[in-house]
Design brief:
Penicillin binding protein transpeptidase fold, 5-stranded antiparallel beta sheet, alpha+beta, transferase, 12% strand, elongated, 16 strands, 5-stranded mixed beta sheet
């Protein structure tokens, strides 16, 4: 009885609504039309639709799809074939071109069925009403929602053309398996754009939204195929296709091509999303963590495209090199590769066997840098302030300063040596003497340009000359800083993101970094030549096969807990770290020099 009463009320309300829509009323000096009231009360700019965001490599290949929470990609009207538009009109709303948003005869037919079943079996919703429900309302079955649906549908018809409504509808409806809209469905099930679908494939997809879980093409292919054939028969019955063509369409094989969601380079994508937070925070001046997270989620739901500098082939080489030279289960590694000529981060390995969501060692692991810090904190500041060159001499003998007594590797002692010899053999006592001569604060002042995230005031001690930091540095930070030696002392912070665009293609965000002249070109060139000499004659001879102009610096921390190598070859600067997540000695593999072999395999020509 409640169902009957509800529909009787709807029958009474609908004619009254139509009368109000058609007729306008006025009162002296205070006239407000019903249409104006709807304009005021119903906001069509607010929708519930979300879109799939994408991360692209430098060649525009999609490497990651981000669903927040829906997989939806918008297809403009001209991208959607007319054939599938006709399928939906015939199957869902044959009076679509004529009605004002709702269809009274259809409501009457649905009322008769529902009264007979004593339940809300059919809702008689037009395409416009379904669009209103998907974009602005809910799917909860109630009379209040049904009336709201009618009002929203009327407002949609008043605001948009029939073609625009149909376009929005085909981008809103659900095709199951997290695919919303015809573009996402075509890609998910057939790996095609909508315009490339055959007519048989189009009708197959059109069979799903009527009852997405029941017509799930992956679980219940035959159900979906039978409904597709019924839709084809309807097209023939209404003269949209000939009966011969209908029989041919029904016999055409349907082959699904369903893959899992794309996440091809999780190491790199992980960092790109991290960098996105930094980009949004800087450009929108959002400092509160919760506010920033909410803003990022809002953007990802809006269907942005994150364009990155990823070089897919270089990424493969980097990931493979890390895996190939770290056979022991507990030993991990990370690598970053930067094109120092363009300032682009082109490859990142977050660790051996890295999976999406893992701890990304390339930018999240902060470890003692060992002697790899010497070019940045010791030698470049020294060359910048003193008239010295590679042949200048320095004392490499024993040293104690206020109880701090550093040792050279193996406890060896040396007399007076050239700066070149001290550098390429990574002697420690000369490095501490040089830092003392430069001044700890002066040298750390130079490091500010590189924005080391975990370097603090507590690190401003002489022990820092040999990598003794409170927390340490990350592989990405070290690699970024080393680009200064290949750019004549100029530092431009390397980036993974080139730009972020909206789903209409408009540029939303782009880095506006300004380069900083950290050291004079002559200083950078002196250090660069020492880095090259380290490869040909010093501690990095195992990478000499990478190329005649390669250069870099090794770093090994106390008890062999960390192995580093950062250097350049051609347009690339790459950094490699090897260690255990819980620091332990790796002396047993010291002779193998896995960090050098990884680096060589990444950058060799």
């Amino acid at each position: 009885m409640r169902i009957i009463t509800g529909y009787l009320l709807i029958l009474l309300l609908i004619p009254a609504f139509i009368a109000v829509v058609i007729l306008t009323y006025t009162e002296a000096g205070n006239a407000v039309s019903f249409s104006d009231t709807l304009d005021e009360k119903i906001d069509l700019s607010e929708t519930k639709l979300s879109h799939t965001s994408l991360i692209l490599a430098s060649n525009d290949e999609v490497i990651t799809e981000i669903y927040r929470p829906m997989n939806r990609s918008y297809a403009a009207g001209h991208e959607i074939p007319d054939f599938i538009k006709n399928v939906f009109i015939i199957s869902e709303d044959r009076n679509f071109e004529k009605h004002p948003g709702f269809d009274l005869p259809a409501i009457g037919r649905a009322l008769a069925i529902n009264i007979h079943s004593d339940d809300i079996e059919q809702g008689a919703s037009t395409i416009t009403q379904q669009l209103a429900r998907n974009q602005h309302l809910t799917h909860h079955k109630s009379y209040n929602r049904k009336l709201s649906e009618v009002l929203y549908a009327y407002q949609l018809e008043k605001s948009f053309s029939k073609a625009e409504i149909l376009e929005q509808y085909l981008n809103a409806i659900y095709f199951h398996n997290n695919a919303y809209g015809i573009k996402a469905a075509a890609d998910l099930y057939f790996k095609k754009a909508p315009a490339k679908l055959s007519e048989a494939e189009q009708t197959f997809l059109a069979a799903i939204p009527n009852n997405p879980s029941y017509y799930d093409p992956i679980k219940y292919f035959e159900r979906t195929k039978k409904r597709q054939e019924r839709l084809i028969d309807q097209l023939a019955q209404h003269g949209k296709i000939k009966s011969e063509a209908a029989e041919k369409l029904k016999k055409e094989p349907i082959t699904l091509k369903v893959d899992s969601r794309k996440n091809l380079n999780p190491d790199y994508s992980s960092y790109a999303l991290h960098e996105l937070r930094e980009l949004i925070s800087e450009q929108e001046n959002i400092n509160n963590t919760n506010d920033l997270t909410a803003r990022i989620e809002e953007l990802l739901r809006s269907g942005v495209t994150i364009h990155t500098n990823l070089d897919i082939e270089m990424q493969k080489r980097t990931v493979q090199a890390v895996a190939a030279h770290l056979p022991e289960a507990k030993i991990q590694g990370a690598a970053t590769v930067i094109n120092h000529e363009t300032g682009q981060i082109v490859a990142i390995s977050g660790g051996k066997g890295y999976q999406s969501g893992d701890f990304n060692r390339a930018y999240q692991a902060f470890r003692q840098p060992g002697s790899s810090i010497k070019p940045l904190l010791v030698y470049a500041p020294y060359f910048e302030r003193f008239d010295a060159n590679r042949d200048s001499q320095i004392n490499a003998g024993p040293l104690c300063i206020k109880g701090y007594c550093p040792k050279n590797y193996g406890g060896s002692t040396y007399g007076v040596v050239t700066l070149e010899r001290a550098f390429i053999n990574s002697y420690n006592t000369p490095a501490v003497r040089i830092l003392q001569q430069v001044g700890v604060d002066e040298a750390f002042g130079d490091l500010k340009a590189f924005d080391f995230g975990k370097v603090t005031e507590q690190d401003r001690v002489l022990a820092a000359a040999v990598g003794g930091f409170t927390t340490g540095t990350s592989p990405l930070e070290m690699t970024s800083a080393y680009t200064v030696f290949s750019n004549k002392g100029l530092f431009l912070k390397p980036r993974a993101i080139s730009k972020v665009t909206g789903y209409n293609g408009e540029v939303l965000y782009k880095w506006n970094d300004e380069p900083v002249q950290v050291w004079n070109p002559s200083t950078a060139e002196k250090v660069r030549s020492l880095l090259q000499k380290t490869v040909t004659s010093g501690t990095a001879r195992k990478v000499a096969g990478a190329g005649p102009d390669a250069g870099g610096k090794t770093g090994t921390t106390n008890d062999f807990k960390d192995f580093w190598f950062i250097g350049f070859n051609g347009p690339l600067t790459a950094g490699v770290w090897v260690g255990k997540d819980q620091p332990e000695s790796m002396e047993n593999i010291n002779h193998q020099s896995p960090h050098l072999l990884i680096w060589r395999d990444i950058v060799k020509k």
